[in-house]
Every structure is written in C-alpha cells, then in structure tokens.
Amino acid sequence: MARFPNRSSAPNRWYTITVLFLILRNIVMVRPEDGPHENTLGLIADDDIFAPLNDGCLRFAGGSKGASSFKVALFADLHFGENAWSDWGPQQDLNSVKVMSTILDIESPDFVVYLGDVITANNLPIHNASFYWDQAISPTRDRNIPWASLFGNHDDAPFEWPIDWFSSSGIPQILCSSAHDFGGDKCSFKGTTRLELMRDERRRNSLSYTGFGPRNLWPSVSNYVLTIVSPKSDSKSPVMLMYFLDSGGGSYPEVISTIQSEWFRNKSQKMNPDSSIPEIVFWHIPSQAYKNAAKKAAPRRAQCVGSMFEERVAAQEAEMGMMKLLKERPSVKAIFVGHNHGLDWCCPYEKMWLCYARHTGYGGYGNWARGARILEIIDEPFSLKSWIRMENGTLHSEVVLST
User: Fold this and answer.
1) Which of 2, 166, 272, 345 lies in the 20 to 30 Å Cα band around 39?
2) Which N-terminal residues, if any, form the signal peptide (predicted)?
C-alpha cells in the first residue's frame, strides 16, 4: 500500500472522500441495478455453485400471440490488448468497438455471445487482464444487452516477450496505472488465469450470463448451459438449449476433454432426455470434424455458405468423444466456433450444421473485413436462421439451419 506524507486537514478530507467514492463505485459495479433485460431474462442454472449468476429463464421478447424471435450476435476473436504498448494496439481496440457498436445498432440482438479470444493475453504485461476484457464487453453492456462468454486459446496465454524489446532500443516504458480499478496498478508478466478473468466478469456485471462450470472439469472453465423459454407469459417450456464449452488452449492443450464430453452427455440427458428440445453448441477452436466437412465441401461447394477457402481449418489437437456424442443426438442443430479469422462458412455435417462465426476484432492476424454471425430463433413454428452482418452494414450468407 502506498504511503502518503502528512498534509493539512483539508486535503486529508478530500483524500478520504475520494477513497470512499471509489469504494462505493466498486460496490455499485459489483451489484448494479437490474436493467430492462434483467427483469425478463435469466437462465436455468447449473447444479454447480459456479453456474451462471442470473436465476430464471432466457425468454423471447414479445407477447403471447403469433411467432416471436430471439436474436443472438456472435462476436469472435476480438483480441483486445494486442501490442498495448504501441500506438497501433489501442487503435485496433477502438476499431473493434466500432465494429461491435455498428452491428449491435443495426441488429438490436436480444443476447450476445463472446466466442473466445476476447483478449490477447500473451501481449498483456499488466497485473490483471480483466481491464481489457471489460473494454471488450463494454459496447454490449452500454446498450443494456445481456451476454455470455467462453474462452479461446489466447485469453489466458502466458506473456510472450517481444524480441525487439531486447534490441538497442530497449524495453519500452509500460504504464499500467490505467488498469487500477482491476487490481492492475502495477506491471506483471505472470498472466491472468481463466478463473480470475471469469470471476471479474461475473463480479462486476449483472448482465453477464457466463458460468464457471463444475470444478471437476477444470482447467477447462467455461462449460455451462443456458435455456431459452417460450415467449408466452404463462409458460416455461424450453424452446432451445445453448451449450457453452471450453475448447482449451493457452494454459493447457487445445482440446475438449473426455470428462467434458461426459459432462455434456449427463447434462443433456438430464435437461433433454428425449431430444425433443433443439440444441446448439458454442466453443472456440473447431473440432477435427470441421476439417472433414471442408474437404467434402470442396467438390460440391453449393451445399455450404460463406468463405470456405481463405485459409485451412486450424482444429483442436484431438477428438475425445464430443463429436460422437453430438452426432448421436438428433436435437443438436448446429455448432458455432471462431479461431480461424478468414473463415465464416456453414456446412452440413451428418444431421447438423458446422458453422464459423466471423472475425469481429481488429486484433489478431489477417486483413479480412470484420463482422459478426447473427442467429435468429423463431418459436412457433420453430426455426433457426443465420447470416453474417459486416462492419459496413451489408449482409450475406443467409442460411436456414433448422425448421
């Protein structure tokens, strides 16, 4: 703790008032008052104590008459905090905010999914990378839209020392004081763990629907389920289940483990034993099945929609049972991933669809135009549609994923 020399009573009073203000502000941030969404949105919580904080149900907007829609925006690979010590890095973060803001204002989604690589932790020499995580979710929070997040391979990656720091120019001066509110008032190169990042998101944001997942799945953290229910005010009938899985990377291998697959099997059997409720699944790094789908699509590309051949699929290191389980469940309609910045395709696979999101952030590799995948769920009759909304406002790659 910093020590201050003796001063007159008046400055001391101002110092005391300032400290009290900061304490009160943090209290408000921990438990902000419910916004309009939070009176109607929630989720059916997991059994684990680290399940999503909001209790209740994610409900369609609208009344009880006619079909209602629920729209979800997917923001993938934002990579906030990249090269934060340069002029280039902060400008890329501002550009990413503009992309998200444009898409949110055009689409007005009911919910947002942050699909991994929210930050580039291997570029962050601050004590707590939650400072940049908070910047990334700010466009959604500022519009009072609830969201959920999961982890990618860069979110808790260890700091990588830039080689040019060791040239004659030397290590640049790094100012970390701007991250004070997040415990980042000093520089650190130890990294911020998945648990720390998720703890800070949940502690500071009542609009967050992110869950930790059961302890026995750690080091995999972002494993949980959200339930969307009927728009009818007198009904809690599920319309769709959304599963979120941590595909690893960063601090541990890029894989969905056998125990995660077992967790999904038990959870899906409990929540949807007869597979009568449609299900969709989110994780960051594509499975090996995405490679197979891309190879099969090459000679008959008409079955797929979106950018197919801008780069090769960078898949998980191994398959450990998850795709087998998903193929056996007729209720699974689609899987959504990020990771490959140049791909935004959807392809049929078995009885489901394999889909990429769209590279949203200006951080990370590649110069492809930025955008986001949009999902639209209709309750009666049920349908799941999707399209890509670009940063310039244009729309492409519309596809019906289920009816």
Assistant:
1) 272
2) 1-32
Strands 58-59 and 352-356 come out as unpaired
Higher pLDDT, 336 or 309: 336
Question: Which long-range contacts (C-beta less than 8 Å, at least 24 apart) are formed by 179-184?
Answer: 179/126, 179/127, 179/128, 179/131, 181/26, 181/131, 182/127, 182/128, 182/130, 182/131, 182/134, 183/127, 183/128, 183/130, 184/126, 184/127, 184/128, 184/129, 184/130, 184/131
Is the model's pTM score more than 0.85? no
d(CA 103, CA 57): 25
Residue 379 lies in a domain: yes
Distance between CA atoms of 141 and 48, rounded to whole angstroms?
26
- Asked, for residue 26, whether it belongs to a domain, the answer is no
Are 99 and 360 contacting, i.e. CB atoms less than 8 angstroms apart? yes
Structure tokens at 297: 């699509």
Residue whose structure tokens are 């019906």: 400
pLDDT at 187 over 50: yes
The answer to whether position 109 is within a domain reads yes
Model confidence over 48-104: pLDDT tens digits?
Answer: 445 555 544 787 876 545 568 999 999 999 999 998 888 899 999 999 999 999 999
Is beta strand 224-229 parallel, antiparallel or unpaired with respect to 58-59? parallel
Mean pLDDT score of the chain: 82
For residue 182, the one-letter residue type is: F
Structural domain that includes position 339 = 33-402
Q: Which helix (H) or strand (E) holds 333?
A: strand 332-337
Number of structural domains in the chain:
1
Helix or strand holding residue 327 (H, E) = helix 322-327
CATH of the domain at 118: 3.60.21.10
Pick the closest to residue 367 from 75, 95, 132, 138 (CA basis): 95
What is the rounded distance in angstroms from the CA atom of residue 399 to the CA atom of residue 309?
18
